[in-house]
Amino acid sequence: MRPLSLDEYKRYGRQMIQSEWGLPGQLKLKRATVAVVGAGGLGCPVLQYLAGAGVGTIRIVDHDEVDVSNLHRQVLHTTDRVGRNKAESAAMAIEALNPHVKAVSIPKAVHNNNAIELLSGIDILIDCTDRPETRYLLSDTAVRLDIPLVSGAAIASSGQWAVYGGVMNGKRRACYRCMWPAVIGDGGGRCSDVGVWGPVTGMVGCGMAGEAIKEILGHGDGYMHMMRLGTPLRSIKLRSQRPTCSCAGGEAPEIRVGECSTKTTTAVERVSPKELHAIQDSVTIVDTRPPTEFGICALESSHNVPLADILAHPDEMTRRYPGQIVFVCRQGNDSLLAAEKVQEAGGTVKDLRGGLVAWSRDVDPEFPVY
C-alpha cells in the first residue's frame, strides 16, 4: 500500500524531489501536529504554507473575529467572512487549499489556565500573537510540553523570527525567556497602533513556516532572522541556554495574560465624544497623533502636535494654548498621557475618552475609522 495517495504524490512532488526532503520528509510532515496561536497577519501565511506543504494536523487557536481592517495583510480571510471567528475562517481556507490536511479550529483565547489543555499533544508550537505577555506564556508552555516554539513579530516595516527551546543536535536550545528574561515595555507596539506593511507580515510568516518545516524535517538551526524592507536579511546565532532560566530548571515568574490598561499618576478629566461635541467651539482641540495619521482624517479646527513633542515640552503647550485644551488621539491612550503631562505643567486640560474611534461611533458615523 502506498504511503501517500496519488493526488498527494502529484501535489507535493516539487518539494519531495529536494534532496533534504524526499518521501521520508513528506511522511514526517503528514504525521506532524502543529498548533498555530493567532490567525492574523503572521498566522495567515504560516497556516497557508504549512497546509500547502502537507502538515497533517494543524490546530488554529484564535478568539478574535475578522475585521475589514485585517484584510490588507491577513490573506486567508475574505470580505464575506468579516465578523466570523478567525480560527474558523482560517480553517475554511486551509480545507479549501488542501483536503489532506486536518484543520482544527479553536475559537478561544489562550491564558494561564487553559494553555496546557489546548496545546498538549502537538509537535511544534507557533506563536503568531502580538502581545509580549502571551509570548512568554507560550514559551513557558512549550518548555513544559518539551517542544520547540517558533515565534516571530512584525511591526511597521520590520520583523524577526526564530526557533526557541526543544532539542537541536542533541543539545537543548535557549528558550524565549533565556533571550529576554522579562517583559520589556510594549514589545514595539501593536499593528493597530503603529501600523504595518502587509508584505512584511507575509515575509515574516513565510520565514516562520519555513522554520517549522525545517524542524519537522530535522534540519533546524539556531539562528534568529531579522528583516527590514529595503535592507538585506540578517541572521544571528542565538545564545546558549541560560543556566538560571526555567527551561534549565530555574523557576519562571508567572506571566498573567489580561487586558492592558493605561496608568496615570495625575487625575485628568475625561470627556465623552458627545460632551466634546457640545463644547467643541469653545475649547482648543489638540490631536496628538503623528502627522501622517492626522493627514488621514481629523476633527474640524483641531491642531496637530505629536505626542513626542508634547512630552518633551509640556510647558510650551500652556503658552501656545492658554485656555482649555482637549487632547484627542485615535483610541484615547496617547491623548491621556499628553493631558497628564500638560496638566502637571500647569495647563487646563481634558481628554477625549475612547478617542476618535469613539467619536465616529457616538457623534459622527461618517468620520473615518482606520
UniProtKB/TrEMBL annotation:
InterPro entries: Rhodanese-like_dom, Rhodanese-like_dom_sf, ThiF/MoeB/HesA, ThiF_NAD_FAD-bd, Ubiquitin-activating_enz. It is found in: Cytoplasm, Cytosol. Pfam families: Rhodanese (PF00581), ThiF (PF00899). One of its GO terms (biological process) is protein urmylation. The keyword Transferase applies. It comes from Kockovaella imperatae. This is Rhodanese domain-containing protein. Gene3D superfamilies: NAD(P)-binding Rossmann-like Domain, Rhodanese-like domain. Keywords: ATP-binding, Nucleotide-binding, Nucleotidyltransferase, Transferase, tRNA processing, Ubl conjugation pathway. GO terms for cellular component: cytosol. Residues 279-368 form the Rhodanese domain. It comes from the Eukaryota. The keyword Nucleotidyltransferase applies. One of its GO terms (molecular function) is nucleotidyltransferase activity. Transmembrane segments: none annotated.
